[in-house]
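Troubleshooting log. The previous structure file for this entry was overwritten by mistake, so regenerating from the original sequence record. Sequence copied from the archived sheet and checked twice against the printout by T.R.
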Amino acid sequence: MSRALKVGVVAGEVSGDLLGGDLIAALKAAHGGPVELIGVGGDALAAQGLASLFDFSELSIMGLTQVLARLPNLVRRIKQTAAAIVAARPDVLVIIDSPDFTHRVAKKVRAALPDLPIIDYVCPSVWAWKEYRATAMLAYVDHVLAVLPFEPEAMKRLGGPETTFVGHRLTDDPSLLKVRGIRAERPAKVKHQEKTILLLPGSRSAEIKALLPVFGEAAREFVARNDKARFLLPTVPRQEKLVRELAAALPVKPEITVDAESKWAAFAEADAAIAASGTVILELALSNVPVVSAYKADWLITLMSKRIKIWSGALPNLIADYPVVPEYINEVVRPGSLCRWAERLSSNTTQRYAMMEGFDLTWQRLQVPVPPGEAAAGVVLEILDKKKPGHL
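Regenerated output below.
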């Protein structure tokens, strides 16, 4: 049996925790010996044996204004996490997404343990803004595990650390694959059939407060123009109270659910979606649910928008490299536009057909030979092997 492998792992949000869980499970299988964990994470990493240093929900913050408001606690948690990892002296540190937190931890750990391999799982969006971060990462990151296929080339162009595309977790998600299969067998509805529309205003309080009232007005207009329609609103348990309070004031009441099973059932049933910009747009694309994307940024991000160089915020657009999903941002997020897109996308139209074609290309470009967790674990073990004494 191989000796115990000690892994430092830091995930700041649920999506990163899931990636970490897959990585550690694959690492255990490939290593063949005990794997000890130290760091921060949620349920998925806890299932692999991590006793998180604190409840990582404290790190679920959105926008620079929220970061600034919670800065004292963020600084304290950064120091606590880095100190615990340094004291544990792991064989490798894997930081996962949430760069406002994880990268600061990595910098402190690198300063104290300069020979410790540090791997960043999920490439920061250096290709979108603040390109200088790519070269800055060379000081504290040895390798990047990318979940988007265009990121290795972007990091190379920007002079960042070596980067490997390991695939996106969603392409191996059993629930998504089941929905994809169901939808492949069902034809699009014709214009006068009753439609089912998903409303997805985000998973953070600020997003929900900004978008749900607008989505509600779009739903009202949709019903006025199309007679009957059903509106499904899957949310997360921690936001159920807020969503129900806001939904009570909407002119058309959506059907609200909070568990993951109901969310995927809604994806399978929906004819189209109106959704907040984010990972959910990629979830919908890979599930073959036509969608229009909307986002309202906080005031500080809006002021800095001229520094954003990326041409789209929708991941299917970036992966396909052309406009697949329509996007509305800030002042142009209007009920009338969202309603009309929902009309076109929920029927058998040229707009829907063109979007499905783009979703097919997105799916193809995300395919990898082995599941993402296994690919990521393979890179981690390869880097550890290179660090062994005597390796040429």
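The first helix runs from residue 14 to 31. Archived copy saved in two places this time.
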